[in-house]
Amino acid sequence: GAGVSQTPSNKVTEKGKYVELRCDPISGHTALYWYRQSLGQGPEFLIYFQGTGAADDSGLPNDRFFAVRPEGSVSTLKIQRTERGDSAVYLCASSLRGRTGLAGNPSTDTQYFGPGTRLTVL
Amino acid sequence: GEDVEQSLFLSVREGDSSVINCTYTDSSSTYLYWYKQEPGAGLQLLTYIFSNMDMKQDQRLTVLLNKKDKHLSLRIADTQTGDSAIYFCAESRGGATNKLIFGTGTLLAVQP
Q1: Among A54, A98, A101, B102, who pairs with A108 as Cys (CB 3.0-4.6 Å)?
Q2: Integer Cα distance of B29 and B51 in angstroms
Q3: Which residues pair with B38 in a beta bridge?
Q4: Residue A104: its chain B contacts at CB < 8 A?
Q5: Is A40's Cβ below 8 Å from some Cβ in B?
Q6: How far apart are CA B5 and CA A99, in angstroms?
Q7: Ranges of H-type helices in A1-122
Protein backbone atom coordinates (compact mmCIF):
# COMPACT_ATOMS: atom_id res chain seq x y z
CA GLY A 1 0.00 0.00 0.00
CA ALA A 2 3.06 2.22 -0.10
CA GLY A 3 3.47 5.28 -2.26
CA VAL A 4 5.41 5.66 -5.46
CA SER A 5 8.89 4.21 -5.21
CA GLN A 6 11.91 4.89 -7.39
CA THR A 7 15.24 3.17 -7.71
CA PRO A 8 18.05 3.88 -7.46
CA SER A 9 17.86 6.93 -5.24
CA ASN A 10 21.20 8.11 -6.59
CA LYS A 11 23.02 7.23 -9.79
CA VAL A 12 26.45 8.48 -10.78
CA THR A 13 27.62 7.67 -14.29
CA GLU A 14 30.17 8.78 -16.81
CA LYS A 15 29.45 10.78 -19.91
CA GLY A 16 28.46 8.51 -22.77
CA LYS A 17 27.13 5.67 -20.63
CA TYR A 18 23.63 4.19 -20.65
CA VAL A 19 21.36 4.40 -17.58
CA GLU A 20 18.01 3.00 -16.54
CA LEU A 21 15.80 4.54 -13.87
CA ARG A 22 12.92 2.59 -12.40
CA CYS A 23 9.53 3.69 -11.10
CA ASP A 24 7.02 1.59 -9.17
CA PRO A 25 3.66 3.42 -9.09
CA ILE A 26 0.93 3.13 -6.49
CA SER A 27 -0.90 -0.15 -6.97
CA GLY A 28 -3.92 0.25 -9.22
CA HIS A 29 -2.85 3.56 -10.71
CA THR A 30 -3.12 3.40 -14.48
CA ALA A 31 -1.54 6.77 -15.24
CA LEU A 32 2.21 7.26 -14.82
CA TYR A 33 4.29 10.39 -15.43
CA TRP A 34 7.98 11.14 -15.61
CA TYR A 35 9.31 14.63 -14.82
CA ARG A 36 12.80 16.06 -14.68
CA GLN A 37 13.87 18.62 -12.09
CA SER A 38 17.06 20.53 -12.73
CA LEU A 39 18.80 22.37 -9.91
CA GLY A 40 16.82 25.40 -8.77
CA GLN A 41 13.91 24.70 -11.11
CA GLY A 42 10.47 23.21 -10.91
CA PRO A 43 9.80 19.77 -12.38
CA GLU A 44 9.31 19.60 -16.15
CA PHE A 45 7.10 17.04 -17.85
CA LEU A 46 8.80 14.32 -19.88
CA ILE A 47 6.31 11.55 -20.71
CA TYR A 48 2.90 10.19 -19.74
CA PHE A 49 1.69 6.58 -19.83
CA GLN A 50 -1.89 5.45 -19.75
CA GLY A 51 -1.64 1.75 -19.09
CA THR A 52 1.11 0.27 -21.23
CA GLY A 53 1.16 2.94 -23.91
CA ALA A 54 3.02 6.23 -24.00
CA ALA A 55 0.11 8.57 -24.59
CA ASP A 56 2.23 11.74 -24.62
CA ASP A 57 6.01 11.82 -25.01
CA SER A 58 6.19 15.44 -26.08
CA GLY A 59 8.44 16.39 -23.14
CA LEU A 60 11.30 14.03 -23.97
CA PRO A 61 14.21 16.31 -24.89
CA ASN A 62 15.67 14.16 -27.68
CA ASP A 63 15.88 10.60 -28.99
CA ARG A 64 18.45 9.59 -26.36
CA PHE A 65 15.55 9.40 -23.91
CA PHE A 66 13.10 6.53 -23.99
CA ALA A 67 10.64 5.03 -21.51
CA VAL A 68 8.65 1.82 -21.31
CA ARG A 69 5.89 0.38 -19.19
CA PRO A 70 5.41 -3.12 -20.63
CA GLU A 71 2.88 -4.48 -18.15
CA GLY A 72 1.13 -1.28 -17.22
CA SER A 73 2.73 -1.05 -13.80
CA VAL A 74 6.50 -0.54 -13.37
CA SER A 75 8.11 1.92 -15.76
CA THR A 76 11.73 2.34 -16.80
CA LEU A 77 13.22 5.56 -18.11
CA LYS A 78 16.22 4.86 -20.31
CA ILE A 79 18.88 7.39 -21.26
CA GLN A 80 21.47 6.55 -23.89
CA ARG A 81 24.86 8.26 -24.36
CA THR A 82 24.38 10.38 -21.25
CA GLU A 83 25.58 13.96 -21.27
CA ARG A 84 26.50 16.23 -18.37
CA GLY A 85 23.38 18.27 -19.07
CA ASP A 86 21.26 15.21 -18.23
CA SER A 87 22.22 15.61 -14.56
CA ALA A 88 19.01 16.25 -12.64
CA VAL A 89 16.49 14.64 -10.33
CA TYR A 90 14.11 12.41 -12.25
CA LEU A 91 10.69 12.24 -10.64
CA CYS A 92 7.94 9.74 -11.24
CA ALA A 93 4.27 10.30 -10.39
CA SER A 94 1.15 8.19 -10.69
CA SER A 95 -2.58 8.80 -10.58
CA LEU A 96 -5.72 6.72 -10.81
CA ARG A 97 -6.84 8.46 -13.99
CA GLY A 98 -8.38 6.28 -16.61
CA ARG A 99 -9.60 3.71 -14.18
CA THR A 100 -12.69 5.54 -12.95
CA GLY A 101 -14.08 9.00 -13.21
CA LEU A 102 -13.92 11.68 -15.82
CA ALA A 103 -11.28 14.13 -16.92
CA GLY A 104 -10.95 16.97 -14.45
CA ASN A 105 -11.78 14.88 -11.38
CA PRO A 106 -9.29 15.38 -8.52
CA SER A 107 -10.00 11.98 -7.04
CA THR A 108 -8.64 10.36 -10.19
CA ASP A 109 -6.30 13.04 -11.51
CA THR A 110 -4.18 14.01 -8.52
CA GLN A 111 -0.58 12.98 -9.11
CA TYR A 112 1.43 11.43 -6.28
CA PHE A 113 5.18 11.71 -6.58
CA GLY A 114 8.01 9.38 -5.70
CA PRO A 115 11.22 10.53 -3.96
CA GLY A 116 13.10 10.79 -7.25
CA THR A 117 16.38 9.51 -8.64
CA ARG A 118 19.29 11.95 -8.54
CA LEU A 119 21.32 11.37 -11.70
CA THR A 120 24.84 12.80 -11.89
CA VAL A 121 26.74 12.55 -15.15
CA LEU A 122 30.46 13.15 -14.73
CA GLY B 1 3.21 30.41 -23.13
CA GLU B 2 3.49 27.85 -20.39
CA ASP B 3 5.12 30.00 -17.72
CA VAL B 4 4.10 29.68 -14.10
CA GLU B 5 5.92 32.22 -11.99
CA GLN B 6 6.67 32.44 -8.29
CA SER B 7 8.84 34.64 -6.13
CA LEU B 8 12.05 32.84 -5.21
CA PHE B 9 12.31 33.39 -1.48
CA LEU B 10 10.21 34.23 1.58
CA SER B 11 11.40 34.59 5.16
CA VAL B 12 8.99 34.73 8.11
CA ARG B 13 9.16 34.36 11.87
CA GLU B 14 7.69 31.36 13.62
CA GLY B 15 4.05 31.98 14.49
CA ASP B 16 3.51 34.54 11.72
CA SER B 17 1.45 33.90 8.60
CA SER B 18 3.19 33.15 5.29
CA VAL B 19 1.76 34.05 1.91
CA ILE B 20 3.27 32.48 -1.18
CA ASN B 21 2.16 33.85 -4.53
CA CYS B 22 1.96 32.34 -8.00
CA THR B 23 0.87 33.60 -11.41
CA TYR B 24 -0.01 31.38 -14.33
CA THR B 25 -0.78 32.01 -17.95
CA ASP B 26 -3.30 29.48 -19.22
CA SER B 27 -6.92 30.35 -18.54
CA SER B 28 -7.96 26.81 -19.49
CA SER B 29 -6.34 25.34 -16.39
CA THR B 30 -8.72 22.96 -14.63
CA TYR B 31 -6.97 22.48 -11.31
CA LEU B 32 -4.21 24.33 -9.52
CA TYR B 33 -2.05 22.57 -6.98
CA TRP B 34 0.38 23.37 -4.21
CA TYR B 35 3.20 20.92 -3.54
CA LYS B 36 5.84 21.02 -0.79
CA GLN B 37 9.39 19.75 -1.25
CA GLU B 38 11.71 19.26 1.70
CA PRO B 39 15.48 18.83 1.17
CA GLY B 40 16.28 15.52 -0.52
CA ALA B 41 12.62 14.51 -0.60
CA GLY B 42 9.99 14.16 -3.29
CA LEU B 43 6.99 16.38 -3.82
CA GLN B 44 4.26 16.21 -1.22
CA LEU B 45 0.78 17.27 -2.29
CA LEU B 46 -0.53 19.96 0.08
CA THR B 47 -3.81 21.03 -1.47
CA TYR B 48 -5.53 21.84 -4.74
CA ILE B 49 -8.29 24.13 -5.95
CA PHE B 50 -10.66 23.74 -8.86
CA SER B 51 -10.56 26.60 -11.33
CA ASN B 52 -14.20 27.60 -10.71
CA MET B 53 -13.58 28.19 -6.99
CA ASP B 54 -12.05 31.30 -5.49
CA MET B 55 -11.09 30.04 -2.05
CA LYS B 56 -10.36 26.79 -0.27
CA GLN B 57 -9.42 26.33 3.37
CA ASP B 58 -7.76 23.23 4.79
CA GLN B 59 -6.65 23.51 8.42
CA ARG B 60 -3.74 26.01 8.47
CA LEU B 61 -3.76 26.37 4.69
CA THR B 62 -5.87 28.83 2.72
CA VAL B 63 -5.75 28.94 -1.06
CA LEU B 64 -7.04 31.99 -2.90
CA LEU B 65 -7.59 32.01 -6.66
CA ASN B 66 -8.16 35.12 -8.75
CA LYS B 67 -8.99 33.67 -12.13
CA LYS B 68 -9.33 37.05 -13.82
CA ASP B 69 -5.75 37.97 -12.91
CA LYS B 70 -4.51 34.35 -13.10
CA HIS B 71 -3.14 34.70 -9.58
CA LEU B 72 -2.96 31.96 -6.97
CA SER B 73 -1.80 32.26 -3.38
CA LEU B 74 -1.14 29.92 -0.48
CA ARG B 75 -1.46 31.26 3.05
CA ILE B 76 0.00 29.26 5.91
CA ALA B 77 -1.30 30.33 9.31
CA ASP B 78 0.87 30.06 12.44
CA THR B 79 3.95 29.10 10.42
CA GLN B 80 6.22 26.57 12.12
CA THR B 81 9.90 25.72 11.56
CA GLY B 82 8.72 22.42 10.08
CA ASP B 83 7.06 24.40 7.29
CA SER B 84 10.49 25.40 5.97
CA ALA B 85 10.68 23.94 2.46
CA ILE B 86 10.29 24.81 -1.20
CA TYR B 87 6.68 25.32 -2.29
CA PHE B 88 5.64 24.75 -5.88
CA CYS B 89 2.42 25.79 -7.52
CA ALA B 90 1.36 23.78 -10.54
CA GLU B 91 -1.40 24.07 -13.07
CA SER B 92 -3.18 21.17 -14.68
CA ARG B 93 -4.89 21.62 -18.00
CA GLY B 94 -6.75 18.34 -17.92
CA GLY B 95 -7.35 16.93 -21.36
CA ALA B 96 -5.81 13.71 -22.54
CA THR B 97 -2.50 14.11 -20.71
CA ASN B 98 -3.22 16.13 -17.56
CA LYS B 99 0.45 17.04 -17.30
CA LEU B 100 1.40 19.51 -14.59
CA ILE B 101 3.14 22.77 -15.38
CA PHE B 102 5.19 23.81 -12.34
CA GLY B 103 6.46 27.13 -11.14
CA THR B 104 10.09 27.62 -10.20
CA GLY B 105 9.33 27.20 -6.51
CA THR B 106 9.43 29.52 -3.49
CA LEU B 107 11.87 28.77 -0.71
CA LEU B 108 10.16 29.44 2.63
CA ALA B 109 12.54 30.02 5.53
CA VAL B 110 10.97 30.10 8.99
CA GLN B 111 13.05 31.83 11.63
CA PRO B 112 12.61 30.66 15.25
Answers
A1: A101
A2: 7
A3: none
A4: 30-31, 94
A5: yes
A6: 33
A7: 106-109
